[in-house]
Structures are given as C-alpha cells and as structure tokens.
Amino acid sequence: MSNFDLTGTVALVTGASGGIGGATVQALADAGARVIATDMAQTATVAGATEYRPLDVTDEDGWAALAAYVDATYGRLDILVNNAGISVTDAIADTSLATFRRCMQINVEGIFLGTRAMADLLAKSGADRRGGSSIINLSSVGGLAGAPFMSAYCASKGAVRLFTKCAALEYAALKQPIRVNSVHPGGIDTNMMDTIYARYVETGAFPDEETARATVSAGHALGRMGTPQEIADGIVYLAAPAASFMTGSELVIDGGMTAH
C-alpha cells in the first residue's frame, strides 16, 4: 500500500462542499494527506479536512493570497485538485451569453488560475517526492462527447481536457516535477445531477425526473450511476506515487458510458 500512501503531503481541493469534492477530501485524508478544503462559503465544515479556507476560483487575487498562505503555513503543496465547477443545462437558443461566459469562467478560468497560482509551490514540493507533485483537473464525459442541452458545460469540460494536456507537456518540457491529469466522471449521484434532471424536464427533454434518471442510468454499461467515492478513489490514485508515470492522461470513470 506504500504506493498509495500520502503521509506527509499537503493537498488542496476546490469545490470541497459538493459531493465529489467532499468525498475527495475524505479520501485524501484517509490516505494520509493534510487537506485544505476550499469553497465559496465563508465558513464550512468538510469531513476529513485539516482546515477550510473560502475561495472564489474565479478571483485571481484570491488565488494569489491562498498560495501565499499555504506556503507560509505548510511550506509545501503536493496535490491540487481543481474540482470546483457548475453545470448549465439549456437549449443553445435559450443560453444567454452571460450564462455561457459564467460557465467558462468557473469551469475553465478557475482551473487556469489555480494551476498558475500554485505551480511554483507544487514544483518545489515535487522535487523531493517520488512521482513529483500532482494536479488533478475534474473534466467529465461531457469533455469527451457531446450531449443535447449541455453545450456550455461540454464546451467547458472539453477545454479542461486540453488545458490539462498542455499543462502536462509544458511542465515536462520545463523539467518541473508536476504531473497533470484529468478525471472524467460519468453520471454521479450528486446534487448537481439532481439539478440536471430537473432542468431536463424543464427543457422538455424528458417528461419527468424519474424518466430522466432511468435513461441516464441506462446509458452506463453497468446500468447504474456512480458514487462520489468511486471518483475520489481515482483521484487518490492520480495523486499517489502509484501513478508516477501518468501525466497528460484522461482517467475515465464512467461505468462504461463512453464505451458504446
């Protein structure tokens, strides 16, 4: 189990109050990491977190301040999980430019700002750790394939996928010990999915939420939705020395959804 041991590491997770974010904080802590949980609320309790810090991932100054705080308080950062994100479920004709831009701002710019702000600290910490430091960006199956009524969301997650690859190649070219990978969940039982079901009904895609849920579940080869823990386990793998030869890769955890 030493290849999955994160004892002595410091991790930061954005969007930590959500289903996948919360499960990730606990899973990283269970593996031995000290975990800084962040989200929009000024105060929050996140199980497994060493501490909670408020963060708007679209705030450039907020990221800079957090990087300085982590350096001063912990002296290192080994794992950055860019998990914060929103979904937009609407017809293209009904999606305002402001809504489209907001989706891009949170889902894409937030990851760019976090990566840029934490890169120096990650590089310093990665120098004395097998496999280096690890950045894990949450994309989606929506970053691999399109879906009706999800244009803004899929566009943003596709951007996350390619930004991840560019960052991985760049840090490798610079000989910086930072691995960068993306995670692509399928349908996961979270509050976000409940919101998507409701929006599907409102757009007329499905007659009711039960039908929406059943149809989405059936779209997975395993015939069910995933759990936040199943995604968190994959994130721990990418953060650990076990994944020391992985960078620029896509970890697809989707119950066979994209295998069709």
UniProtKB/TrEMBL annotation:
Q: Which UniProt keywords apply?
A: Oxidoreductase
Source organism phylogeny: Bacteria, Pseudomonadati, Pseudomonadota, Alphaproteobacteria, Sphingomonadales
Pfam families, per the entry:
adh_short_C2
Q: Which organism is it from?
A: Sphingobium xenophagum
Q: Taxonomically, which superkingdom?
A: Bacteria
Is Oxidoreductase set as a keyword in this record?
yes
The record's comment on protein family reads: Belongs to the short-chain dehydrogenases/reductases (SDR) family.
- InterPro entries cross-referenced by the UniProt entry: KR_dom (IPR057326), NAD(P)-bd_dom_sf (IPR036291), Sc_DH/Rdtase_CS (IPR020904), SDR_fam (IPR002347)
State the protein's name. NAD(P)-dependent dehydrogenase (Short-subunit alcohol dehydrogenase family)
Q: Which residues form the Ketoreductase domain?
A: 9-191
Q: Does the keyword Transmembrane apply?
A: no
